[in-house]
Amino acid sequence: MGRAVPSSRVLRPASALAGGLALVLAGCGPSSYQYNWNILVDSVIRPDGQILSGIWLTLSISIVSQIIGIVLGVFGALGKMSRIAPIRWIANVYIWFFRGTPLLVQITFIFFGLGVTRIYQWPPINLLGVSIPGSIQAGIFALGLNEGAYMSEIVRAGILSIDPGQLEAAKSLGMTYGKAMRRIILPQAARVIVPPLGNEFNNMLKTTSLLVIISVPELYVTFSRKNASGPTVFHPFELFLAAAVWYLVLTTIWGVIQAYIERRLAKGVAGTPATGGVSLRERLFGGRRPEGAPQGSGGR
What we know:
Layout: H1 7-27, H2 37-45, H3 49-80, H4 85-100, H5 103-116, E1 125-127, E2 130-132, H6 134-160, H7 164-172, H8 177-207, H9 219-228, H10 236-266, H11 280-285
Antiparallel strand pairs: 1-2
Helix pairs in contact: 2-10, 3-4, 3-6, 3-8, 3-9, 4-6, 5-6, 6-8, 7-8, 8-10, 9-10
């Protein structure tokens, strides 16, 4: 027989949903504010081109920044584990700086600081016929650098989880360090790396909203501009509730994808249930973690 799930964990999602509905209903009480529910419905069910553009830009920035973060994370992890002191020192300073300073400060420094000093002024670039403004370039660069520092520790933990004897065995077969990492160590470490990596991408989808400081027209900025002018001016309740719904849609879709990836990676791992990985309910709302399942990232 399986263990009974504590009732508190079963009721937790329902309680959170009930609390959220209570807050919304409380906000709908008598007030001088004139609600326009058509704005909410249109923004969610019939989004215009401006909203769709903001969603696409949010997704694009998140994906590119995460890819940059993964690449930097692999190099950062290997650099931190290197036996060459200068490489190890550079990796440690990189991780220390970007984990120890606020992302908002990093974004403003990279865009405004580098620009005003003429170190790099972020001119627009054309890629496949598409003009990419400097603010988007700087935003991707800042998010990627920041993510790389966190991914470095995640990748390093995944590498350290593999028996060191496997690296020695690969070397004894004539493999170089790089080939052994690519073919032996990193594929096995993926089971440990993927869950926190998925959580980091979930966080990245929301962190793009910080690019408001450099006026990147992603999802949050799109709704802010709708609230500032046009036919929807000063309807913050409906507009930002719609923005919250869209962020929930994006993170929920990614939660489904992540749960599927984790189940695939967990197949055949001792100590995991036949279904493997983490269920969709546990991924979205939390709950009892299956015995032997890899631990995810604890957040920032």
